[in-house]
Amino acid sequence: MDFRHEFEVEQNQLKNQIDLSNHFEDSDIRYVAGVDLAYWTENDKEYGVACLVVIDRENLQVVEEVSFHDEITVPYLPGFLAFRELPLILEAVKLLKIKPDLYMFDGNGYLHPRHMGIATHASFFLGKPTIGVAKNYYHIEGAEFVLPDNYEGACTEIVKNGEIYGQVLRTHQNVKPIFISCGNWIDIETSQKFVLEFVTKESRLPVTTRYADILTHKERKKLSGITND
């Protein structure tokens, strides 16, 4: 069964509700969650695990981490990843004792053909501001980019038809840049500020999504028996 049409209808309905302005004061943001997923196949069935790692903004320490795994029943369709991932993410969120003030997703938000990457789509169910942080560029036709200069904090904008879809951000000198985008209820300047605030010298990625990524590999290995990652 091809779900593309009904998925696209839902995305377009939600797209009209996106608001790329800050719906909070800086002092409102204390706990920030990183979100990532990993997949594996077992007995011809596909499974996924969603992991959330909550970081205390005051000291960048992990204060909570949770995971939830289940069978994946929605097929992979480019541009509609949220429909596969969101059910697991929302179940993992229910396990949290500490409620995050902001979520950073290993993936995209507004940087999407219909501006409905996982970070944006999830915001409507989480009720919190969100940011997309991607390791690689999800190509959007007509939205090319120029690499930023080679210094920490350098960035260029990803623009299509005069509209900013996201940023290419270099978090350290001499490292590959990352691709950030607003999810919802936050502007691009503030998104960049928070991403850089959570980057340490150990990685080009913010600790939020970096630790979530590490946890997904650990959980997938434990659940599936996969030993080579």
TrEMBL record:
It comes from the Bacteria. Its EC number is 3.1.21.7. It is found in: Cytoplasm. Signal peptide: none annotated. Its cofactor is Mg(2+). The record marks 76 as: Interaction with target DNA. PANTHER family: ENDONUCLEASE V (PTHR28511). DNA repair enzyme involved in the repair of deaminated bases. Selectively cleaves double-stranded DNA at the second phosphodiester bond 3' to a deoxyinosine leaving behind the intact lesion on the nicked DNA. This is Endonuclease V. The gene is nfi.
